[in-house]
Specification:
Elements: H1 4-40, E1 45-47, H2 57-61, H3 74-83, H4 98-111, H5 115-133, E2 139-142, H6 143-160, H7 166-183, H8 191-206, H9 220-251, H10 254-262, H11 267-280, E3 286-290, E4 308-312, H12 313-317, H13 358-373, E5 374-377, E6 391-396, H14 403-442, H15 444-451
Parallel strand pairs: 1-4
Antiparallel strand pairs: 2-6, 3-4, 5-6
């Protein structure tokens, strides 16, 4: 017979295991944060803080001396590692100067279209994606996965001015998924997926298929990597994440969803919903900048040149609001996004998101296309990083669910989500530590700037080429994961 002591121990162990979804993920996230800080060192100044409060946040962020982007920060090594290949020509990571200005101009030219044209294109790509996966029955999807083919096709069309072929969509989605999964620490990098897209873009450039003028100071390979990083990595990932947050928020607030669906022409209310979603779930966690000179502001301590500033969007967005944890789109009826603590696309004086005009237009189009066909319902956790990719029920509007069936499906989603949280949090701890250590060991940004100036020019004539400018075959195998 089992002794009372053994039975008690088994019962306690079982209770601990069953309760682990409630306590383990948060503790693992806290441990992962400590590991990241330990590996990267105590670098930088976190803002807002006690000395530099939220009332001065934008003033510091927008200061001309807060303009360094990659050179001189350990955090840059980590982001360059995650964004490879081509982090040295990624628009967001170029240092200020003529090269950055030309790249930014070219990006703006590609994204510049009349709002009506952008809206129509986003609506069309959303319809096509929904029709391609429609079954006529209720189904469970991951919202980020649902939206990624939409934006792959949308940005391909902006870049190449032609419909997106299936091959290109597959390559773009595979590349974007690999980047964002690595950033979330849910997968190691699979560089072979990224290199396939690079080769495709190189072929298109060699054939002269691009209708846009590209930055002249970049080699052809760098131009391919610029396109890949700006449009088929960052743009696709960020728009997919933004839509996943917006649709998940609607799924979890039925009254808001019902109003948006019932009044599809009400731009004002949908803008309130988007503002509130971006406030609670900003796409950026922190943005880091390196000061290029001392920053001296009235009444504040001087920030020395070379300081790494880490601007926390979630912390800033949580200040200046009544009941900031509550999802309340109506609060924006009495607020101005310009004057509130609200910077979903950054600050205008320090590299705002290039798509800050485009994103709200196309998000409105995509949201209305989804809600015209489906009711959304989801009981899962909603965090800023959404590593679960936003599980959700899509319920065809012409086939409403009985209450009992809905309850069963919601319970199944909840149980799966809690169970996945446990395994995923442990996986993120392991893979995140692996990749942080790999980035710290290889130091891609620091190594690059040891041999190049901030305009990408070799410091010495006999310097060997940077890995991202070598022939294609030299970068087909990932030295950090062993995968190619």
């Amino acid at each position: 017979m089992v002794s009372r002591t053994t039975a008690a121990a088994l019962a306690a162990g079982g209770a601990l295991l069953l309760s682990s979804p409630a306590w383990l993920p948060a503790r693992v996230v806290a441990l992962r944060t400590k590991v990241f800080a330990r590996v990267n060192g105590d670098e930088g100044m976190f803002l807002p803080n006690a000395a530099f409060g939220p009332d001065r946040f934008r003033e510091v962020y927008g200061h001309p001396a807060a303009g360094g982007r990659s050179k001189g920060a350990a955090l840059s090594d980590l982001f360059w590692y995650w964004l490879a290949p081509g982090a040295d020509v990624h628009q967001e990571h170029l240092e200020a100067g003529p090269r950055y200005e030309e790249v930014a101009r070219r990006t703006a030219a590609v994204l510049s279209r009349p709002s009506a044209q952008l809206y129509a294109a986003a609506a069309r790509h959303t319809r096509q994606a929904l029709e391609a996966t429609a079954t006529g029955r209720v189904r469970s999807v991951r919202l980020r996965d649902l939206m990624m083919p939409v934006w792959a096709g949308f940005f391909y069309e902006l870049v190449f001015a032609e419909p997106c072929p299936a091959e290109a969509r597959r390559l773009i989605v595979a590349n974007a998924e690999d980047v964002v999964n690595a950033l979330k620490c849910t997968r190691l990098r699979h560089m072979r997926r990224r290199h396939r897209l690079t080769r495709y873009l190189l072929r298109r450039l060699a054939a002269g298929d691009l209708p846009h003028v590209l930055p002249a100071g970049l080699t052809r390979r760098q131009q391919a990597l610029y396109l890949q990083g700006t449009f088929f990595n960052t743009a696709v990932v960020q728009m997919s994440e933004a839509m996943a947050h917006l649709l998940l928020a609607l799924a979890q607030h039925p009254r808001t969803q019902q109003r948006v669906a019932a009044t599809p022409d009400d731009d004002r209310y949908l803008t309130y919903v988007m503002n509130e979603t971006f406030r609670l779930y900003p796409l950026f966690g922190v943005a880091h900048r390196i000061t290029t000179a001392d920053i001296s502001l009235d009444g504040l301590p001087t920030i020395p040149a070379g300081t790494v500033l880490t601007f926390s969007y979630p912390d800033y967005h949580a200040t200046g609001y009544a009941d900031p944890e509550r999802f309340d789109p109506e609060r924006w009826a009495a607020l101005s996004a310009k004057n509130a603590h609200h910077i979903p696309f950054g600050v205008a004086t320090n590299r705002p998101c290039p798509a800050w005009r485009l994103a709200p237009v196309v998000m409105r189009a995509a949201t209305r296309e989804v809600l015209a066909r489906y009711e959304l319902d989801s009981p899962v956790s909603h965090t800023r990083s959404i590593p679960h990719r936003a599980p959700c029920l899509l319920i065809p509007r012409n086939r409403p669910l009985p209450v009992s069936v809905r309850r069963v499906l919601r319970t199944a989603l909840t149980v799966r989500d809690r169970a996945e949280d446990v395994g995923r949090s442990l996986l993120q701890l392991f893979l995140g530590t692996w990749m942080v250590l790999a980035a710290r060991r290889t130091r891609p940004a620091a190594t690059y700037f040891a041999h190049h100036d901030t305009e990408g020019r070799p410091l010495h004539p006999d310097d060997s080429p940077h890995p991202d400018t070598r022939p294609e075959q030299a970068t087909t195998t990932c030295p950090y994961t062993g995968r190619s």
